[in-house]
Amino acid sequence: MLNKPKIRLTNQRKMIMNFLLNTDKHPTAEEIFLAVRNLLPQISFATVYRNLNNLVEEKLITALDFEKGPTRYDAKNNDAHFVCRRCHRIHNVKGIDTKKIIKKISKDLKSQIETNTFYFFGVCNDCLNEIEKLKDDAYFTQNKKKK
Q: Which tens digits make up the pLDDT trace of 126-143?
């Protein structure tokens, strides 16, 4: 996977890729640095950040950059993502055949797609439940004061 001619397979890159491939979360550069530093105590944040940029340039990982919060990274490049506009958590969306969509668009446009992003924005279930609870609490408090 990392044996592309433009990028050398260093121990740091192996550790970063291994961490990203084995997480379902979408960590920030700082979170990746803290995890990799446990295995390579001498690694610096600058080294992790530089390697993340190199891996993104080589299209081996994806930088998930949304309107709020820090950039997050994903090594599973064919995922679709749902981003909660309230808590900013990122969820992988299962069941969407992104490869099929890319193939169809490439065929229809007679073009080669080099990169893609599938983002859906809204409010996640946890936040919806929290909003409902706040509404219920407000209703209860308001009705209690009327009595």
A: 999 999 988 877 665 666
